[in-house]
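Fold it.
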Amino acid sequence: MADKKTANIEKTLKNDDEKMIREVVKESGEVLTDTKRGPSGLEEISIKGERRGISLIWPFILISAGFILLFNYFNILPWSVWGVAWRFWPVILILGGFEIFLRKTIWHAFFQILGGAVVIILASIFILGLYFQFRQEKVSESPFNFLQLFYQITGPLEEKTKELTVSQNEYSNLEKINLEVKLGSQELNLSTDNSDDLFYSKAVYNTSNFEPTLTKSQVGKDLFLIYETQENQISFFNVKGEYEIKLSQAELLTDLTIGLDSGKGNLNCENLNLEKATLTIGSGELEADFGSQKMEKVQTVEATVGSGKLELKNLSSIASSHLNVDVGSGRSTLSFGGEIDKGDFLVTVNVGSGKILIEIPEDIGIKVSYKIGSGNLTVGDLKTSDDGVYTSPNYTDAESKINLDLVVGSGSVEVATL
């Protein structure tokens, strides 16, 4: 069989073998370019190797990705754009499938040229569209009319506002509110106020998929509220979703469940009669402040972080509870600011490849039971990669104590004093 990597191969064969050689050449992917009668009745067959062409599609995909990263670096585009761009990964499979299908046909070269041209055109529309949008120029003023569709997809959209309210007059004999908030790439701000309403929200958005819905149901003396949006929009950029939630009636117990995918959240839990909090973050960011006042009813606070960022402040306010934090590849800061009650506070932390900083007042005793894979732990003067137990010098005599149960994979944990 002829070597595909050889540009030109010449073989001299007998006439009787020509048919067989032609079949071999055909199977090998080579091209039979010339035959002629040679001396002594031999057939000289010239075979020209066909080199496999290099696809133009993938280099341009890399170039386009490079431009996006460049725009990210110079703050022309937000980094959150990648959260939308990944949804178009099936296009790569489609292009790859076409190329494999047409690779050994006469249309392969044409497909390479056409595919490269299409990518160039799309990349040009993309880059020029970003330019006109960034310059705040009208598309109609540009010489490129084909940018109109791009601008409609990526340009500013009409903002809408929606307010939702749950009045205390709607329900009776309530003792507890269970609020679940499920958002994707939007922004959330949650706090408390002194109004007569149980729940109030104001949403500002510019795509119908970001319109919030509120599901309400009462079971016994518990009120269940589910506040959520859908995110199947096709807009690339400039989608907006900002949500403000206020809770009142501090005498009612509250279970809080917050789910953020790639969005940003800020929770001010001051004056909230919290009993349980469950926080889940994907690649987004969440900051929760538990305030300066003691929360007597808190039982558990659980937080799960994927590749995002979590910051918990004033954890001393919930010191009678159990804190459980699970971090994948993201980062988390646990700050025990404020005054902590006498007694023990149990904290469980699991870290994959991420990083956690735990800040503790110096007058609080701390005991750390740790299991470490390939990661490391830094606490006081100790820096270790082994399993074991660390006890602070003031642990025995301290009135307030934190017992930390720690499991680290390939990540790192640092315990520092405030």
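The chain is about 20% helix and 40% strand.
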